[in-house]
Amino acid sequence: MRSGQFNKIHFRKNEQIASSSLRVIGADGKQIGILTREEALAKAQEQELDLVEIAPKANPPVAKIIDFSKLLYEQEKKERAERKSAKKGSALKEIWFTAFIAENDYLTRLERTKEFLGEGAKVRIAIKSKKRLNNNQPLFNMINRVVGDLSAVARPEQPPKMFGRQLICTLAPSGGNVENAKNEI
Environment class of residue 93 by beta-carbon count within 10 Å: exposed (0-12), middle (13-18) or buried (19+)? Predict the structure, then answer.
């Protein structure tokens, strides 16, 4: 395991274990029982494995007879899976519209937005103005239309806000049925 790459959990192994008695789990995952530290070390050496303290705060502490590199590999795999699942739920996608978008382009982008919402991602809707408008009413009309068309599957997280020449609104999935909403358009 490379240093700094993963959240390293420090395990005491073999002679580093300070407790005089341990609850020992064998290499097969079955509990052996409560042994002295020396007896547990002898069992681990018989099997040519390490004695690793996995629950130091238990009474008595729990130690497992296992190959230490295998334990680190399993820990690394578990952390990777946790990071991967954490990334999935927090995705933020962005879809751009314009105030005067063609109908077919509008429907295509609306379908794409529904796909993202169906996957559980949040979607940032950006209505861009290509030229300076005297008023922002066309932008607000478009964002209201998008939010209204997606009301069955999404809810706005915050009211629309102007940032420069674009109007932005973030939508979160509301748990509605995306398949039924696709058929409504």
Answer: middle
